[in-house]
Amino acid sequence: MNENFETLFENSKYSQDLTKGQIVQADVIDITSDHAILNSGLKSESVVAINQFKNQEGEIEIKIGDTVEVFLEDIEDGEGQTKLSRQRAKNEATWKEIMKAFEENSIINGFIKSRVKGGFTVLIDQINAFLPGSLVDIRPVRDTQYLEGTNSEFKVIKAERKANNIVVS
């Protein structure tokens, strides 16, 4: 019986070698009004703010028993807790998508959030990109208010991960 358990454990997701800065799988074992309790297979369960699991409408996207991808911020934070972040895992996935669109010269969807000096801020899954005013249309557009708050397709013309700099057209 012990050999079977040992074999099962070694083959489970909890036997994976986990290091800080990695995307890991974690099971949702409890949800409160403020937190989600996750088990990533490390020595302690993790408490993650519930707002990291809410969609844009404010609805909770997870339920008990779900497996989610999270970013391992720290294996032990000094208080014996494992620090996980759903938001950082989403950001990592979005950056991969942005870099892929940049390298393949393909289209990516975004949301024109607001006007800023020289152009617009575009949200690509919670990551800010810049849309220069000169690249909004083929010819100059004077009234751009109709663009704000709309979804559109963009090409990534510049992407620098280290500088957190994305330019779209």
TrEMBL record:
Pfam families: S1 (PF00575). Residues 21-87, 105-169 form the S1 motif domain. The keyword Ribonucleoprotein applies. One of its GO terms (cellular component) is cytosolic small ribosomal subunit. SMART domains: S1 (SM00316). GO terms for biological process: translation. Belongs to the bacterial ribosomal protein bS1 family. This is S1 motif domain-containing protein. GO terms for molecular function: mRNA binding; structural constituent of ribosome. Keywords: Ribonucleoprotein, Ribosomal protein. The keyword Transferase does not apply. It comes from marine metagenome.
